[in-house]
Amino acid sequence: MQACTECDTHRGDSMIHLEFIDRARSTQTVPVVCMHCEQPTCAEVCPADAIKRSGDGIVQSARKPRCIACGNCVVACPFGVPEVYEDRQIMMKCDMCYDRTSVGKKPMCATVCPSQALFFGTRDQIAQLRPRSAPVNQFQFGRQTISTRVFMMMPADTVTSRPYVDVTAAMAEQPRQRAIRLEPVSADPFAEVEV
Amino acid sequence: MATIPVDPLKIIEQFGPHRSAPSGLRLSTSTEPERLVKTHCCFCGQQCGLQLKVRDNQVIGFEPWEDFPFNRGMLCPKGVKRYLQGAHPDRLTMALRRDQTSPHGFSSMPYDDAIARVSSEIARIQQTYGHSAMGVLSGASLTTEKTYLMGKFARVCLRTPYIDYNGRLCMVSAGAANKKAFGIDRTTNPWSDMVGTDVIWIAGSNVAECSPITTNYVWQARELGARIIVQDPRITPVARTCDLYLPVKPGRDAALFAGVLQVMIEHDWLDHDFIDTWTVGFEDVAAYCRQWPVARTAEVTGVPERSIRQAAEWWGTAKTSFLFHARGIEHHSNGVQNALGTINLVLATGRIGKPKSGYGTITGQANGQGGREHGQKCDQLPGWRDISNPDHRRHIAAIWDIDEKDLPGPGVDAYELFRKIDAGEIKGLLSICFNPKVSLPDNTFITRALEKLEFYTAIDFFLNDTARHADIVLQGRVIKINKAVDPPGEARQDWRIIQDIARTLGRPHGFTFTSPREVFEELRRASKGGVADYSGITYEKIEQQMGVFWPCYSDDPQTGQPVDHAGTPRLFERGSYNPVARGSGPFYFADGKARFNVADHRPAVDDVSEEYPLFLTTGRVVSQFLSGTQTRRIGPLVQQYPEPRIEMHPRLAEKLGIGDGDWATAETRRGAITLRAMVVTTIRPDTIFIPYHWPGDKSANRLTVAAQDPISKIPQYKVCGCRVGKADRAPGYAAMLEPQQ
Description:
The complex is a heterodimer of chains A (195) and B (741).
Chain A (H helix, E strand, L loop, with lengths): L16 E4 L8 E4 L8 H5 L26 H5 L6 E3 L4 E3 L5 H4 L6 H5 L10 H7 L3 E9 L2 E12 H6 L3 E2 H5 L24
Parallel strand pairs in A: 5-7
Antiparallel strand pairs in A: 1-2, 3-4, 5-6
Chain B lengths: L7 H8 L19 E6 L8 E7 L2 E7 L12 H5 L13 E4 L7 E4 L1 H19 L4 E5 L5 H14 L5 E3 L6 H11 L16 E5 L3 H4 L3 H10 L3 E5 L5 H4 L3 E3 L6 H14 L5 H7 E2 L1 H8 L4 H8 L3 H13 L3 E5 L1 H4 L4 H15 L8 E4 L6 H6 L6 E2 L3 E2 L3 H11 L13 H9 L5 E5 L3 H4 L3 H8 L4 E6 L11 E4 L18 H11 L11 H12 L11 H7 L48 E2 L18 E6 L15 H6 L4 E4 L1 H7 L6 E5 L4 E8 L7 E5 L28 E7 L6 H4 L5
Parallel strand pairs in B: 6-7, 6-16, 8-9, 8-12, 9-10, 11-19, 12-13, 16-17, 17-18, 20-24, 21-23
Antiparallel strand pairs in B: 1-2, 2-3, 4-5, 4-18, 14-15, 20-25, 22-23, 22-25
């Protein structure tokens, strides 16, 4: 997020979001980048036709001459990505660092990410780096299925039975203290500690 | 008397810390940089490569440096935003003198006059009280050339034994333990050996926040099947997804290692061939471990029995493994023993000196290692030589062209140096790149000691919290390893300031270098033949290889013939030659064997008691660094974690009637501070955590105890007894100070 604000097209503003899921219960954080939908809901609801998807599948930030800052896209985006900047009367969002990726560089966030939770590369590369995970780009929101250009890595064994992420169901889940493969010592590692 | 000249609020008004935000060229999206300067982040010990965008002698932004092998473009928030400290409004551009008549406590003065004043005061103090009445405190964020120069300056120019450095707060426990066990003080393997190993044991290291780039190495290892064991009183971001979490009580680490080794011994999960052939002292350690059956270990450490057994099984039966630790087990009055406990686990399995198998410590500061190898640690001379060893003294005296008798003996550690100031033995102090008023434990004492100084000179590029006590402040400059821009105003490069003082004192001999490269060339000669041998390292080789692992020889130690040596990425490989063992074995002792050392558990000083029933432990957050002299001035980093908070478990909070965000007071035998509570389930319910980057009424080190390890002299930052209560009102500073102040 700090690196995103250093981009040459929107310096000072981060186009990606970084949230603690529930800091009271876990240190888990999640970065939110634009998922670059194949049929972008933001563009579909835009009354001014200001949001374009380029030939390589990247959903662009709103076009200045067209955007009327109505905020339809903000409300409609299932991933919560776009934001309207009231001072400039425009919506801006992650465009996968179009200035960088269009000249063969990686997006800023995925370049600097110290845990490589954000990764930019080919399917072959990620298959080698994460042999026990599989990329998924189908997301289920109630009855709406969304396909995206950005993939999430899921445990390989769960993907064969359920090759999509059920976002609505996941919203009811509690944040997890630990990860999947874990053989937990106990649900609460501090259960035996007296206060 | 080095007292603060005026109300600190007045000083802050002028000298900050103020927050910098990108502006001007740094916000422009249409300005192309004139050039990209390849350099390194100036903060933690990871020293990530990055590129600075420069235009009009100004750093205007950063660009990742993806070719640099260690971090391959990756950076943490500090690395991304570090460029904002260049051209910072708080940056000192003129020398300052204390001036009570000035509204902000200091007036600027011409650089030459400041140097003259410093020199005449040093001369006066040394004539009146002797050479040893001057003390020097140096920093581990300095370049190796500067640390070498500081060591030489104290011994040759000032002729005082009293120099030490803030690396004393960092890696010295690990260094001392490595010296006892291996005969050499260096992490044994390159980080790349982590990827592909079976088990990684992380003992007391909040990797994701304190050395973020290491996260990818750990997680990449896990992706390829490694099991991760984390030992920490907090569920740190890396602990959250580890395979086995060991929730150790602060100050019980050596007991845990002994208990785990005892289980390994009982199950014979040992490499007897390795132990018999390449080590000494296993029997004594095994005898000690018998005192630590698993039930007692669990009771003392707070780690459940089944977790101790599981750790022993995974560690004992692995084929390859990597263990590393950091301040979590080192910042203890038992720090060296804790580190030795980990080394015993490594030696018992023989998994060292091989690909995918090793051991290491993560240094916390940019140059903790180089700083002590080349002579700013009170008992060491360049090349990791011993200041008490007659041969070593003669070698260095010859390089420095002085009589060996004129070379002072060992001095004292940084904290003891303040005790000597308090006792009136040291009257004058010169500090560079060190902010002890924030970073040393029980810092109320530090303030009192500072006030007793007759003359205090601080060299820094910001007026840090300690420098507010100074008589003269000389405006130093960050060495950017590769210089990016020229220093502002009358600011001078640190090495020039030191040489100017030497010249004005009339003691210029040995301080006539004209460039850092010349310093480095002398350092190469000085280190030659020492354990930390840099003789084969050149600036060109560093650039070409993107880093060199010492020892790196100019002459082959086996044949004495000149050699083009690439360095030594992995230590202790079987069959390797080193100048101490001379072929008898891979370790740096005459017999070539490593040493097991009984790693004794001793209770912490000022441990929990009825009166102070909670553990206090301290540490860092990802967006701040050390005493915050730099990072508390960078706006976006301040925003990420503005002010210190007291982390506590909801069960403790409930018992105390404290809610998330409430003001709470933490109190120890040294003092009390009031901060907002942060109620989280990710910490032991009998423990609170406070990050230490802030000064004054927000300073965690007002609470910590000045107990030190008897061998390494590292302070016991990671544990002391404390109590917490809900505060009935907001503290006074809340209405007066900005979060970073």
